[in-house]
Task: structure prediction
Amino acid sequence: MPDALVSLMDGSWPTVVLSGLCLVLFLPVVLARMKFLRPLKDIPYPTALPIIGNAYQLNCTQEEFFKKLTKWAEKFGDIFLIWVGQRPFIFLYRVEAVQPLLSNSNYIDKSLEYQYLKPWLGTGLVTSSGEKWFFRRKLLTPSFHSTLLEGYLKTVKEEVKVLISCLETEIGNWFNVVPYTKRATLDIICDTAMGYKLNAQRNSKDEYVEAVDKIASIVQMRFTNVWVSSDLIFKLTKAGKEHDRSLRIIHGFVDKVLAERKAAWKLKHDDNFNKSSTKKKQALLDLLLNISEDGAVLSDEDIREEVNTFMYAGHDTVATSIAWSLYALGRNPEYQEKILNEYDELLGNEEITLDNLHKLTWLDASIKEQWRIYPVAPLIARQIYTPIKLMGRQIPPGSTVLINSYLLHRDPRYFPDPDVYRPERFLPDSPKLPPYVFIPFSAGSRNCIGWKFATLIIKFAVLSILKNFHVESLDKEDQLRFISELVLINANGIRLKLTPRERYPAN
Result:
């Protein structure tokens, strides 16, 4: 009898059958993986290890991670990728790739990492996608109409006045301005979002204030730390336990305010809550209650999602923009004088309004130039679910694409001497920039819904601080230590020195 037949009869035939089954079961998976990888083969990337990819290179500080992104861009060119396990993250920073991606409404899905925000924000405007996002965006857009922004300006003025009094305690000292701007914007956003006076500037140890700061920091850490991407692992860590505690405090606070406002809305339904009323200031929460139609359109959970989204997205980005604006002006004090001279010439003793604030072109240009050099969101991430061609490469579904706006804004083709702070680039008579080369609040259909309100706060705060203080910045540009969180921060904070101005003694 042939040896092979004897072997088969001896029991090795199950091995043959199992091998065949494995081949049948796993061959489609292997072929699908090969098909996925094929379009990516020409995109360069740093040396990757089997299974974990470049994850070992991401086991570093957030400051080192930002430096690596810049070095890899220099090394690999206009498009490169890094492998995090089996997932490709594709980095872009040329307008030729940015415009087709952001201008196409088929690509509005945030990256998978935004799931880390869902325990806090649910599926509100920042984290939702598809039909839900389109519906919410259309529903909420009227909430940022200029008529309502005029009402919000009153709150901005009140809280910036408190900010000035807090900054007076630091006169003559080098200090980090970021905690001050964060508390001020938290007070502004809390009042305009919920109609609630938080008083974070006077009570920095408030439980809700600390919880928001803590959970924001933890979520941002998870965006770049692949080792805590698993919820199972994350919940076992100290950060995971702090996250859940902060979450309970935040939801408890917002639910309490929501219940109180809803009860008042049902009982009184007076002018403050009436849909047609513009006489009294309305918080976003009041407007959401109006359009909710008592739960028919928006449930209490839906309203909580949007209030939390506005609180989070509103205060951190605005606070960071104010701080970076002051830093840039502190390094370039001649522009402080240009801003104030124009203010004196055009407004004098006029009360600041939405209309006349727009007249201050040097203020506007200085803030835009700050956004260019220190972008609000240094990385804009999109999850790809249908193929798209970028930089001559076909990007397959399952990829995550990230726009590096820090590098986009430094393209010397559009911004000569890109590292130099030069507000003249944004004066009204300067050459008009092509679309998508400057995207401080993202661009396309998924741009920031509250950018006008954010700009209002930033302009008024910066102008008010300059009227009261001469600003100096401690760190030189080459001493900055960038960290790419959801916003761009400096590892050492933004360290300033303030000197009182005699020019505006009444302020």
Notes: The first strand starts at residue 79 and ends at 84. The chain has 17 helices and eleven strands.
